[in-house]
Amino acid sequence: MSAIETRNLTKHFRDVAAIDDVSLDFAAGRVHGLLGRNGAGKTTLMKLLTGQIFATSGEMRMLGQSPVENAEVLSKTCFIQESQKYPDGFRPSDILRIAEGLYPAWDQGLARELVADFRLPEKRAIKKLSRGQLSAVGIIIGLASRAPLTFFDEPYLGLDAVARRLFFDRLLADFSEHPRTVILSTHHIDEVSNLLEHVVLLDEGRVAISAEAEELQSAAIEFSGRLDEVTAFIAGADVLRVQEIGALATATVHAEPGSADRARAAGLQVAPVSLQNYIVHRTTAAAAAR
């Protein structure tokens, strides 16, 4: 069952197509990764789906309904942005109290645990919080809301690696006990690769990939060895990247059945390609082809 559907969705800002003919399905009860370079259209897509901006054309459905000016759908939606703004005179305790009244499934016990986990100074004025502490406020709201549709748009700016790990661990633990549909936009792909179940890659407003994360984890393979041997072996392959260092080379190609065994038999070294590197190579290859 799809929690979110788009059909030929397009959003123009003057002469720029920020979202260009996007048709996607996000299954209910899963964690979806929304990936892409800065300016790829990720934030625009999330703003469209959460009813914050209007589409130029196309259709979208959230829980079977249009999200545009739809209080029923929006009450089940939580959108945490990287540039989340709060009134300067407010304190985190004020914001969390308001959030408790906005989300029907709000878990106050979880909110209290997260405040302690992130060491958030609840009584300090918002304008005096660090960038990381502001991110913690958004993360706490996103997790404690337990909204059926939860969007995180790069929610951890300013957080160190330990705090980011804490966010991912708490998201996974709470999702396991209280499944919902999560859309997570991130540049820290390797840190969330074990969390994502489905991946969408946007490139210049269009869908470059929509696939299962497990499938993408084994989509490419890396061969390395002498330049002439690597060049000969990858002839005719779907090559994503070749790096030459003197008489040596490393090539990343789309994996084919038996290719790893053949490469080892040919004396080449074989290594898997992480999801992050695969996404980087796909995006770079697409840009070079234009």
Largest beta sheet: strand ordering: 5-6-7-3-8-9
Number of strands: 13
Largest sheet: 6 strands, mixed
Query: What would the principal axes of the Cα set say about the shape?
Result: globular
CATH topology of the largest domain: Rossmann fold
Q: What's the N-to-C terminus distance?
A: 36 Å
pLDDT under 50 segments (min length 5)?
A: none
Number of domains: 2
| CATH architectural grouping of the largest domain | 3-Layer(aba) Sandwich
The arrangement of helices and strands along the chain is EEEHEHEHHHEHEHEEHEHEEHEH
Q: What proportion of the residues is helical, as a percent range?
A: 25-40%
Strand content: 25-35%
Q: What's the gyration radius in Å?
A: 21 Å
Instruction: Calculate the mean pLDDT score and round it.
Output: 93
Structure in words:
It is a single chain. By secondary structure, the protein is α/β, with parallel strands linked by helices. The chain has two domains: 213 residues, Rossmann fold; 53 residues, Alpha-Beta Plaits (2-Layer Sandwich), CATH 3.30.70. Helix content is 35%, strand content 30%. It contains eleven helices and 13 strands. The strands form three sheets. The protein has a six-stranded mixed sheet with strand order 5-6-7-3-8-9, with helices on both faces. A four-stranded antiparallel sheet has the order 11-12-10-13, sandwiched between helices.
